[in-house]
Amino acid sequence: MEPIVRLEGVTVRYGDDPPVLADFFLDIEEGKFTTLLGPSGCGKTTILRLIAGFVRPQRGEIYFRRQRITDLPPNRRKVNTVFQDYALFPHLDVFENVAFGLRVRGEREAKVRERVLDALRFVNLLGFERRHVHELSGGQRQRVAIARAIVNEPEILLLDEPLSALDRKLRAEMQYELRNLQRKLGITFVFVTHDQEEALAMSDTVVVLNEGKIQQIGTPKQIYDEPANRFVARFIGESNLFEGVMLEDYRVAFQGRVFTCVDRGFPREAPVDVVLRPEDLEIVPAGEGLLDVRIVSELFRGVHYEMVGIDDLGGRWLIHSTRRVAEGTLVGIRFDPDAIHVMPRVREENGSFSDSAAPADGLAEEGGTPALAR
């Protein structure tokens, strides 16, 4: 399927600093909820601003439905943005905030009223037309910002960390509302966040970024279950991460033992990284598992206990279980072969191994920068 937006070989630099994005490629699929996920400074907001037209690249091109829009001003792009602080006008009521863009375009009053009321109905704010911004809750202000964005009928809605100022409970509620809204509208959402749980809960596609480079693109399940490299494994959820050696297909050695896994296609004796998620580890009596660990800490997390065990080589194992085990207890842990995820370790020019990203599934090397394969 042809992407709705394509960033092709884009480079962005602010002043004399190193480039935020260098020779960067990304395709965004139409009608999907795509999330740009990564730590602060990784380039995700810059990507959003490129699509909106607020930033122009020093090199490269931006396309919308195959049409070059690199130099097109923001007001001529079929894009609207919901900002982190919502950017509502405090001196205007809800109706006039939502109507602002229509009035700038010179729409007739009857059409303005019809479109504004339709947008407010869509976000469940009918009856709030004459409320002022300071009279609204955080969630209501967010919905006003969304109504103001969708009233102009954009083909893409850009959302720059719009939930970051909300408390945890309201944030969870608004995640459901945003996801349902995207499905009802059927338009493309591009959402920026550094919150892994938020990205996994809401997205059709997650783009994981670090230092201006794509680390992995995939569905939330693919990103969580099959991380492409150490960075993704560490950034998405909680992980047990060990260095190992792939002996042959379906056999991997780590922590002084050989385990059966479901991975294949690695060279014999290849250095690898091994990931196991803490919820995939089962506690059994000492001597009855695949290895023994001594519990050195335990915390109650509400849904489960979070425990740390140390094996006989000093390896640290994070374990999530509904069963509490007291500190100091020796227990066995068991896990299935498909709970083991094996990743290649990347060799640097000096011969050492690092956490650098290996090209992930669905990525191709293009000018030295991982890009979405086309």
Automatic annotation (TrEMBL):
Extract the NCBIfam families matched here: potA
> Which transformation does this protein catalyse, written as a reaction?
ATP + H2O + polyamine-[polyamine-binding protein]Side 1 = ADP + phosphate + polyamineSide 2 + [polyamine-binding protein]Side 1; a quaternary ammonium(out) + ATP + H2O = a quaternary ammonium(in) + ADP + phosphate + H(+)
**What name does this protein carry?**
Spermidine/putrescine import ATP-binding protein PotA
Q: How does it assemble?
A: The complex is composed of two ATP-binding proteins (OpuCA), two transmembrane proteins (OpuCB and OpuCD) and a solute-binding protein (OpuCC). The complex is composed of two ATP-binding proteins (PotA), two transmembrane proteins (PotB and PotC) and a solute-binding protein (PotD).
Segments forming a coiled coil: none
Gene3D superfamilies named among the record's database cross-references = 2.40.50.100, P-loop containing nucleotide triphosphate hydrolases (3.40.50.300)
Natural source organism: Brockia lithotrophica
Membrane-spanning ranges? none
